[in-house]
Model the fold of this input.
Amino acid sequence: MVSFAIRRFLAMIPILILLSVTVFSLAKLMPGDALTGKIDPNNANPEYIAKMREQLGYNDPVPVQYVKWVTGFFQGDMGDSFVHKMPVTQLIGERIENTVMLALASLLITYVVAFILGMIAGRWPYRWSDHLILTFNYIGYAVPSFFAAIVCIYIFSIQLGWFPASGSISVGAQEGTLYYYLERIKHTILPAIVLGLFNTAAYTQFLRNDVIENASKDYVRTAMAKGTKTSAIYNKHILRNSLIPMVTFIGLDIGTLLSGAVITETIFTYPGLGQLFIDSVSSRDYSVVMAISMLLAIMSLVGNLIADLLYSVVDPRIRLR
Amino acid sequence: MSQTTTPQLPPTVSESKVKGTSPWAIGMRKFFKNKLAVTSLLFLIIMFAVSFSADLLDTHDPTKVDIMSINEAPSKDHYLGTDEGGRDVYTRLLHGGQVSLTIGLSITVLVIITGTIFGSIAGYFGGWVDSLVMRFTDYVLTLPFLVFVIVVKAIFVDTGVLTLIFVVSLLSWGGTARMVRGKILSEKENEYVLSAISIGCKPSKVIFKHLLPNVISTIIVQSVYLLAAMIVIETALSFLGFGVPANIPSWGNIMSTASTPEVIEQQWWIWVPAGLCITSTILAINFVGEGLKDAFNPKSLR
Done:
């Protein structure tokens, strides 16, 4: 197991290098300076700009700039934001908390809903409940997240007024009070549901099919022959076997959720990494764009690694590859 | 009495029946028995037909700004009202469908071609070619798709639809390549491939003439699902402002008008029709895809 993990980890390194080269080259290709941030936009004196450019190393050969950026990145120095006038590391630090909370809430909702619906549909297949859940799944697959978000805002925020439509916290909420945490949760629920909608549909369907498949296996027949109650067979024997493959999805979720957050956060104006990314691309704040794309790429790489490791725990045959 | 040397068909099987039992014909027959899939196919045909005859069906100009009639509710003049520029939403919906569907189709075609070429080269040749191509594919698959499309689109500022098609295709062929490689890998173990090689067929001929026709059904199913995904990608990117240029109507661009709570609350006619068009199209495409998958699967009972 350990040797598999190490091998898998080492195989990640060339891809990581390639990724950093890609991000750096893309940033270099963007119009303007990729590492802009420290130059004062109000001071347009050509001499000053030339001096700053020299000082910031824009006149260095490109490979030198690359090495500088990469070493800086992995030491936690991602440059300065041009728009926000602060170190990118600090800026991302402020935002990442919101995105992580959103992703965790989304994961929780996804797995709980998929677990309940999948078990119901799988236990009584081809009944009305199954058909209803199947319909939900088909719609969940088909509806684009931005449309789902708008519909949710229209129904739950505007018509019913249950949840706020934007932001992550109300004005005036003091950190540390119970009210503050309740507000945070209230602001997170709608985006979390929308973010997890596709996965919920996919996992519900997966669990349903897996439960139906398991129900015809030998161990279920044995349990039945021994007189185990049907509910116990489903809730203990089958559930345990069907949950195993679902656990391995968590790794892959990391990448999808963080990328999906780009759309969801923008619509709900939820101040997380995704919204920061879109804002920064629009305002040409390249150091932030570079840092976030690199960060998200690394996260999806790590997610794949976790998925592989979890899979090898579940199915030891994988390790032999 | 000497036996005939040329193999002949048993006399009881008529010519037409032999034709009717090719895997393709069986698949098609199965597909047309699937009511949901056929209904969806009809729906899609109508959707395409209506979108592509937008100029015949409606006389409004989708891009003409008319400040005298902004944000109007649906009426006889404007079936689905007007947006903040006084443009007719119904007209924009039709033209938008044309743009969104065309982009989705173009990306799908490009992705399928690229993915199939890479996949079949990797699968057929194996060895170092395979590892090289597949490592590269792995790398493309690791990139967080949406983020990198937006970054690349930011480099080509103010470029048109073609850049969008190209950028999205460039980043999404990985899945198809991996799938085609897997299929080719198992298909090339068959003896007919060996015999084709031993009578001197060139690799390109073996791949195109012998291998691909045998994996084409999987590729078709893949491309149907891909079409759905790519329409969603186009609309999502346009919604965020990184897709189709704002002056060209597309389903995503129409939806992007509804980014403020005021529009969502008071002007349902802007976002509901476009949203329903996208969702129902994706739904129908998925049903067709599922129908085809079932139809081509020899194990399925239906």
In short: The CA atoms of residues 37 and 85 of chain A lie 7 Å apart.
